């Protein structure tokens, strides 16, 4: 009789866009999956929490552990964008974006790591942004937060490698989600999605499933020798 355990994954931002696609993919791949998001979802094992609220996160992680077992996979996809000319950017808006996109990753990693350390096996995938590669006008706070996530990823990978835990980042570029369409609707993209497709080497917009596929690979057993890497999924927009 097989005694293979079913691993448990937590996906933040799992109620929408990329996080939702990652959760769906991991469920299809046979993992136990719980999602954490500000916005409730109808899926089983969806928990409502703000990733900046450590006390609530610890409470939710404890519930997930009881329901599904130790959490050895974490995908940090919760995030906020923001568009403002730097000279007009308020410190409150700067802090809000850094709080969610960077401090949220700090809290979620710290809350989930005890299970991974105990198991001697773990996978963390942080969803950063291709804008950290290129820079992006009017998004200094967002790009600073995502660049910091890439840096955190590389450093944490070095700390956790000896513990059997890999840490990688997937920076998406131009993925068709509510975040992208809202920005298009507010004319914040410097053109329509169609205009951008014409400038994208593979000539299509990215799909949340493209990011989910990269996460599924990085989480798999066979990716155990890959850590501290920033795996761009952007249709060739950034090389
Ligand atoms: N769509 C793109 O082209 C693109 C490009 C680069 C990076 N990203 C990144 O991918 C990730 C997912 O973005 P998306 O495009 O799917 O956006 P989305 O807006 O569709 O989904 C983001 C989810 O995060 C949740 N969230 C936001 N703040 C939260 C908080 N404080 N606590 C808990 N949950 C919170 C939202 O409720 C939402 O469900 C984000 O980190 C985003 O920065 C997206």
UniProtKB/TrEMBL annotation:
Q: Where in the cell is it found?
A: Secreted, Cell wall
Q: Does the keyword Oxidoreductase apply?
A: yes
Q: Where is the Ketoreductase domain?
A: 7-173
State the superkingdom. Answer: Bacteria
Cross-referenced SMART domains: PKS_KR
What's an example of a GO molecular-function annotation for this chain? 3-oxoacyl-[acyl-carrier-protein] reductase (NADPH) activity
Q: Which InterPro entries match?
A: KR_dom (IPR057326), NAD(P)-bd_dom_sf (IPR036291), Sc_DH/Rdtase_CS (IPR020904), SDR (IPR050259), SDR_fam (IPR002347)
Annotated Pfam families? adh_short_C2
For this UniProt record, the keywords arranged alphabetically read as follows: Cell wall, Oxidoreductase, Secreted
Instruction: Name the reaction it catalyses.
Output: a (3R)-hydroxyacyl-[ACP] + NADP(+) = a 3-oxoacyl-[ACP] + NADPH + H(+)
Question: Would you identify the family this protein belongs to, as annotated?
Answer: Belongs to the short-chain dehydrogenases/reductases (SDR) family.
* UniProt cross-references to NCBIfam families, sorted A to Z: PRK12826.1-2
Q: What is this protein called?
A: 3-oxoacyl-[acyl-carrier-protein] reductase MabA
